[in-house]
Amino acid sequence: MRAVRFIVSVIIIFPSCICLSQARVILQTGDTSASAAMSFFYRFENARFYEPLIEVDVGPDGAGELRFRRGESDEIIDRKFKLLPATLARIRELIAASRFLDSNEEYQDKKDFSHLGWVTLTARAGGRERTVRFNYTINAEIRELADIFRGIATQEMRLFDIDTAQQYQPLDLPKQLEILESDLRLARVTEPEQMLSVLKEIAGDDTQPLIARNQAKRIADGIAKGKFKSPVKGSR
Questions:
Q1: Rounded to two decimals, what is the model's pTM?
Q2: Number of neighbours of residue 186 by Cβ within 10 angstroms
Q3: At 77, which helix (H) or strand (E)?
Q4: Phi-psi group of 79: left, alpha or beta (phi > 0 → left; psi -120 to 50 → alpha; rest → beta)
């Protein structure tokens, strides 16, 4: 009789363990229909900055668009990009960890850093949408999200400037590579790996200045060796 009771208990408990295990996998991978259909929007605004407006749209598959203005010009510069799967997964993970779509938390801290600009974050999933705006926050997940999106914008703007220099101003290329290297050292680039193909192309292009080719090779080697950190926590 005791053996029967034991078998029944195992039968009842075992499916529960399976469900809990599956739930943990879902939380860790973010592989749910809601998260898979999630899209994001980021905006940075500061009229005093050289880039007074920066916007980043990211779709459910990681395909995105950067739009930005420079100086006093009203021209909008745009670039298409595709995030690495690990970056998109981390964004979804942070949205889930912060309960962004369900929370009513005001992320703006009592400290006012509006002179450094305003950040707007939006997430959309399953017919739901939430937008928040702040200039400074102590919420770790939201702060990392803002840093990741700003890092995406930075890497795409650097790629734009490097491409422009390659085509029209070769003598300006060493300066642009120097700016990129500085951003990498300060962990301002979300996906350093995305720079590798361009850097390797420059390093092997005899039509580019020798100093630029040497710079590009040095930076590419540093990226390949994991020398540069990213705003994505735990990425390095």
A1: 0.84
A2: 11
A3: strand 77-82
A4: beta
Measure the CA dihedral 185/150/127/37, to 10°.
Answer: -30
DSSP output for 113-125: -GGG-EEEEEEEE
Amino acid at 206: D
Chain segment 79-96, per-residue pLDDT in tens: 999 999 999 999 999 999
Query: Is the model's pLDDT at 16 over the cut of 80?
Result: no
- Distance, in Å, from the CA atom of 175 to the CA atom of 73, rounded to the nearest integer, reads 22
Contact by Cβ (8 Å): 214, 202: no
Q: How far is CA 134 from CA 11, 43, 109, in A?
A: 51, 11, 8
Q: Are strands 53-58 and 118-125 parallel, antiparallel or unpaired?
A: unpaired
Contact of 51 with 66, CB cutoff 8 Å: no
Q: Give yes or no for a contact between 67 and 77, defined as CB atoms under 8 angstroms apart.
A: yes
Alpha carbon distance 132, 218 (integer Å): 40
**Count of positions (residues) in the chain:** 236
